[in-house]
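Worked example 2:
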Amino acid sequence: MILALADTSLIVDYIRGIDPGRLALTRLLTRRIVSTTVIVEAELWAGVDSPQAEEAVKKVLARFSAVHRYERSDARAAGALRRDLLRRRGDPSPREIDLLIAGAAVARGLAVLTANVRHFADLPGVRVLRP
């Protein structure tokens, strides 16, 4: 059973060999209890700047038992999070991708596993795990 959705920051730490993210993600991938989303996949591909980086992204994505498509329920949850953030803080545009990732996690009842806890900690209903 999948328990968490990995954020881009954690996967980048894994690729770069940065602990504790690398160790945590290795354990969770081995146990097949972590997934990610195509939004994170897009962020990873955006960072590819060499053939080695391309290979690293391919390898890590192949280790995930699930890379979720973005569904209407994800969009609905992300929209609610954005609306709440807009009411409380004003323009949430610097955090749009994080809101999409959080929406995918909420819609699936998963926690967000991230190296950047502060990007998600103030979002209501989003469970956040750090490595």
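The chain has one domain: 4-123. The beta strands are 4-6, 34-37, 67-68, 111-113, 128-129.
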